[in-house]
Structures are given as structure tokens and as C-alpha cells.
Amino acid sequence: MKFKLLALIFFVSIYKGFSQIDESQTGAWYMYFYSHQFKNSQWGIQGDFQYRDWQGLGDKEQLLLRSGITYSPKDAGVKFTLGYGNVTTGQFGESDDTSAESRIYQEALIPQKLGNRFYLTHRFRYEQRFVEDQDFRTRYRYNLFLNVPLNSKALSPKAIYVALYNELFINGQTDIGDGREVQIFDRNRTYLGVGYVLNPKIRFQFGWMNQKTVTWGKGQLQFSMHHRI
Questions:
Q1: What's the pLDDT tens digit per position in 15-52?
Q2: Which residues contact 125 (CB under 8 A, 6 or more apart)?
Q3: Which of 29, 90, 123, 135: disulfide with 177, CB 3.0–4.6 Å?
Q4: CA angle 82, 88, 92 (to 5 degrees)
Q5: How far is it, in rounded angstroms, from Cα 48 to Cα 224?
Q6: Which tens digits make up the pLDDT trace of 177-204?
Q7: C-alpha 118: how far from its chain's center?
Q8: What percent of the residues of the chain are helix, what percent strand, and what percent coil, each to the nearest 5?
Q9: Is residue 17 in a domain?
Q10: Residue 7: how many CB atoms within 10 A of its CB?
């Protein structure tokens, strides 16, 4: 009996070891961001499609599809968004199991320019999350973006720029159902990259992002296209 119990503990330990996230392995995110302002209107649309992989390709971390309606009050210097996101999350490793999430969000985007070259953007986002097998959840997010052109003073065509951001995620509650709890701190993302302005409507970025949660931290390469339709 003791032998069977020890064997069970041994195999459970092995299973948990293999299912844990490899923090030394660099993943990759492939992202497309779009926005469109309706002609002679304060209304528009914006969104993003993202494929995130634990190891680059072949081990899906997430597929995220998100779109929203935007409103920009005249002379206010802010853009508001009401949107919806659908998220499919995969497990690290060989497992093909996934979980689903539907997400409604409200956002305020506030651009700011410091001096001749420093382009700041503040993004405040509030999310209502419907995660599979969990109680209703909410989350608060704040992201500070900074773009600095290197070969010109503006983010104009042919400009090369340094891109940085830091985003903090805070859970709205700790109880997620069935006696399970999460901490108030959800995660933090820090990014450093380089971008190129192809024309007034298209920019490309490549960089590295470090994401830290309560239980793990991991580096991610990011490839993104930013498109004004």
C-alpha cells in the first residue's frame, strides 16, 4: 500500500513538472491592429487580431479576436471605445485542451506629446470577463506607451522609432468560484521594440515583451502591424 502511494505521488509530480510553463523558453505574439474613422464623423471602429504561441509556433497560447466602436469628442483629446473580445487559451506543452472567454470592455485612449519627439499614449481599460468554468470577473488595465522617432521629429513615412510600453493588470475581485481565488495583482507587461512607418496608414513593429504573473514570468517576441484603414 505504501509503495502504491509513493508511486502515485511520483507520477503526479512528474505530470505537474511537465505541465508547468517553461519560463526560459521565449514565445511569440503575431498581431494585427486596425482602426478606421468614418468620414466627417466622430465615430469609428478599431480592434486587433492576435495569435500567441508558447514557443514561437506549434504550441498555441491564445487566439484573441477583438473589435470595438470608437467615439472621439471634438477638441477633447481622448478616444473612447466600447468593444467585445473572444479569447481561446491553450495549455503549455503537449495538451490540446483549451478554455474559452468572452470579454466586453470599455477604453479611454489619451495621446500626449512631450517636446518634439516623445509621443505618449495613456490607455485605461475596464473589462467584464466571462471565463469558462469561472464566475463572472472584472479587470482593470493601465498601459503607458512611448514612441520616440530616431531619424525625424514625427512619426511620418520612413521614420524609424523606438517603442516602449508598460501595462499593469488588476483583478476586480479575488473569488472566481468553487472556492478558487486569485490575487488582486493579475500581471504586468514590459515591452521594448523598434518600429518603422511605411506610409501614413501602415506601421510595423518588432520587439520583446516580458510578462510576469503571480506564478510565472516569460519573455515573448512581438511582431505587429498597425493599420489605419
A1: 343 347 888 889 999 999 999 999 999 999 999 999 99
A2: 105, 106, 107, 108, 140, 141, 142, 143
A3: 135
A4: 135
A5: 10
A6: 999 999 999 999 999 999 999 999 999 9
A7: 23
A8: 10, 65, 30
A9: no
A10: 10
- Domain containing 155 — which CATH number? 2.40.160
Residue 15 forms part of a structural domain: no
In a domain, 129, yes or no: yes
What is the pLDDT confidence band of residue 229, given thresholds at 50, 70 and 90?
very high
How many structural domains are present in the chain? 1
DSSP secondary-structure letter at 7?
H
The pTM score is: 0.88
Burial of 129: CB neighbours in 10 Å, binned 0-12, 13-18, 19+: buried
In the numeric block, the cell 476586480 is attached to: 172
Q: What is the CA radius of gyration of the chain?
A: 20
Q: Which amino acid is at 152?
A: S
Domain hosting residue 89, numbered range: 29-228
